[in-house]
Design brief:
Blueprint lengths: L1 H18 L5 E4 L1 H7 L1 H37 L6 H54 L4 E4 L13 H11 L5
Parallel strand pairs: 1-2
């Protein structure tokens, strides 16, 4: 029984000693960093413009395919059944190719944007590690995972300044 009391006393003292340690905790809004940094803005702008180009190209092709479809339908009563069927099958192949090309273009764009964003965030992580070491910070949390915190613990603006100084180009 004495061993049990001694064990409880030991646990109580060790937990109490650990709770007296001061952990330096800060938080950061990574969305704010991405949306307001120079390189983050460029990444977003490039993604939007690339998507817009794909959409414009797709709209042009869709209009062209619609015209082809209407021309084929106009010729329905003029052409023989086999000739009409060949035109319909050819048009369907064109539509399928268009859909595949558009899907591939969007997938490639998404992959490229994901890779660029990932590379940017790796650089931000390295900056955060350096900042934490320089300022004796034990833990940096992401703001979107917090419920309530004192705004004095927010280091987003400090990190944004460093990111704008150290990261100049998109990789």
């Amino acid at each position: 029984m004495k061993f049990f009391h001694f064990f409880l006393l030991f646990l109580f003292i060790s937990f109490n000693a650990q709770s007296n340690e001061q952990n330096n905790i800060r938080f950061i809004d990574l969305d704010y960093i991405f949306n307001n940094s120079d390189v983050g803005k460029k990444i977003s702008k490039n993604a939007i413009s690339s998507k817009k180009k794909i959409d414009e190209k797709s709209t042009k092709l869709e209009k062209n395919l619609e015209k082809q479809k209407n021309n084929i339908l106009k010729k329905k009563n003029i052409l023989e059944a086999k000739e009409f069927e060949k035109l319909v099958i050819s048009h369907q192949k064109n539509v399928q190719e268009y859909q595949l090309d558009k899907g591939k273009s969007l997938k490639d764009l998404s992959t490229k944007n994901l890779e660029v964003t990932k590379n940017f965030m790796k650089k931000v992580d390295n900056i955060l590690l350096q900042y934490a070491g320089d300022n004796n910070i034990d833990i940096i949390l992401n703001k979107k995972n917090l419920i309530v915190s004192n705004s004095t613990f927010d280091i987003s603006k400090d990190i944004l300044e460093i990111v704008n100084k150290k990261i100049k180009k998109i990789d």
